[in-house]
Amino acid sequence: MGRSRDGLTTKIQALADALGRPIRLMLSAGQAWDGHAAEQILTALPEGCRLLADRAYDSNAIRALLADQGTEAVIPSMPQRNPLIPHDREACKGRGLVKRFFNNLEHFRAVATRYDKRDDN
User: Fold this and answer.
1) Is 121 inside a domain boundary?
2) Structural domain of 72
């Protein structure tokens, strides 16, 4: 768990299928870069699939990991990347399923208020 001015913080990393159902969940420190958790959570991907991710996962290391696994990366480039790596804009619209998953998850009182602070709960 990370510490900020407001107290402890935690990020929930999720890997979901094409229907928005969670495959794998992982907790990481709130101040940590998302890529550290990505390297652990992306090992669960089957070969030959597509990963729709947001800009936080735009790094050469993550793209190389996905290429080694035979996974197509559909990740928008960070604005400061030069040159920008092209991506499938239509496929990126499918990320809305995962965003809705997180929206639904935030409505659970135990998650929103962090009564159960352990990841096994």
Assistant:
1) no
2) 2-113
